[in-house]
Amino acid sequence: QVQLVESGGGLVQPGGSLRLSCATSGSILRFNAMGWYRQAPGKQRELVASITRGGSTNYAESVKGRFTISRDSAKSTVYLQMNSLKPEDTAVYYCNAEGVLYDNYWGQGTQVTVSS
Length: 116
Fold this sequence. Notes:
Elements: E1 5-7, E2 10-12, E3 18-23, E4 33-39, E5 46-52, E6 57-59, E7 67-72, E8 77-82, E9 91-98, E10 104-106, E11 110-114
Parallel strand pairs: 2-11
Antiparallel strand pairs: 1-3, 3-8, 4-5, 4-9, 5-6, 7-8, 9-10, 9-11
């Protein structure tokens, strides 16, 4: 059973920053990829950022230049650094891991609210 434990969500003002963390036991390199998704009310879940086993990254156009996904394999943790936050970034953010058999695992979600 794969468990993903998220932390770092909260309430911030526009222009502020947050860093989300997603930790698991065992090596994160066993996964094909890990990523962060978000879902806002009335919108579909969207991929925000992902990182593959080989370290290749991908970002949604809306967050390019503002968000950075990274990993610390020694700590079995993936991070999402979010800078220059906007109200439209408000959503529940979910950590995701894709296994070698294309099975998907999800964190419980963490609320990010950007509001003045």
